[in-house]
Write a structure and sequence with these properties.
This is Peptide hydrolase. Belongs to the peptidase M28 family. M28E subfamily. By secondary structure, the protein is of the alpha/beta class. Helices cover 38% and strands 14% of the residues. Helix 2 runs antiparallel to helix 10. 54% of the residues are buried.
């Protein structure tokens, strides 16, 4: 299937050409605690693996669910929900946290929680610190940070924000396919999806993946990178539907995928026991955290998307 035909059913969408939430985003950025990200990633990458069919994959999913639930509870924000999205293919479940706005139109921040050792998938060690421990922990901290925004807390946002942690990505985008297929069947209004898969290896420019993504949303996302981060970006391609953004695209929803670097310059140790936390550049993770905050806040308060 060609890239164009793959994305031909994506709904038409227009995204902001002017960023209007600079004051709010700049107030949130200092609250984004990269030490929290390092602490949670230390635990998340200590599981022997997070393979979707292993006992560790189920245990790590439960640990992650408990962490996200505790964040929601301790925030005291009314209406916030955290739920398991269970799957028939494995005991590992996906997780969806929802921060409701004034409408059910929804934007999604996504990452995948599973890991894999490609040599011995079911039994091999796979700490998955970068792939995708960094993305998973970074969006969890973004969730925690955004729960402190006064307008989000009082449900003044025009749109709802969801945070997704997908199961079974390494086995073929299984969790995200199930989520977005169900959303499409139910007519769920997803205005935009941002995937964060591997955000901790490079200290250079972020990679804007231009295939299997939405051109208009990518243009908006580049604006956010330029405004709220110091890393800059380079356009790059995977050459295939390489992460969960492709599931959103397939279901007809606009998606973007922002990678740690140009695709060909990514972490060489993924899918092996060498993908460990000592190799993670947390300054780079922080820049991706700023992107998440800016992207979500700008779209949450954009009634026209």
């Amino acid at each position: 299937m060609s890239i164009n035909s793959f994305a031909s059913n994506v709904q038409a969408a227009a995204f902001p050409t002017t960023l209007t939430q600079k004051s709010a985003v700049n107030a949130l950025i200092p609250k984004y605690n990269i030490t929290n990200v390092k602490t949670t990633l230390t635990k998340f990458s200590s599981f022997y693996n997070r393979y979707y069919k292993s006992k560790f994959g189920a245990e790590s999913a439960q640990w992650l669910f408990d962490q996200i639930s505790a964040i929601a509870t301790s925030s005291g924000v009314k209406g916030v929900t955290v739920r398991k999205f269970t799957h028939s293919f494995a005991d590992q479940f996906s997780i969806i946290a929802t921060l409701p706005g004034k409408s059910t139109k929804t934007i999604v921040l996504g990452a995948h929680q599973d890991s894999i050792n490609v040599q011995t998938p079911s039994t091999g060690q796979a700490q998955g610190a970068d792939d995708d421990g960094t993305g998973s922990m970074a969006i969890m901290e973004a969730f925690k940070t955004m729960l402190t925004d006064p307008r989000l807390k009082s449900r003044e946002a025009d749109n709802t924000i969801e945070f997704h942690w997908y199961a079974g990505e390494e086995a073929g985008l299984l969790g995200s396919q199930a989520v977005f297929q169900q959303y499409a069947k139910a007519g769920t209004n997803i205005a935009a999806m941002l995937q964060s898969d591997m955000v901790g290896y490079s200290n250079g420019p972020m990679g804007v993946i231009t295939d299997f993504t939405n051109d208009a949303l990518n243009t908006f996302t580049r604006r956010v990178i330029e405004q709220y981060t110091t890393t800059g970006y380079v356009d790059s391609e995977c050459g295939y539907g390489c992460s969960d953004h492709a599931s959103a695209t397939r279901a007809g929803y606009p998606s973007s995928f922002i990678f740690e670097a140009a695709f060909e310059e990514s972490n060489p140790d993924i899918h092996t026991p060498r993908d460990t936390i000592d190799k993670v550049d947390f300054a780079h993770v922080l820049e991706h955290g700023k992107l998440m905050l800016g992207w979500a806040m700008e779209l949450a308060f954009s009634p026209s998307i």
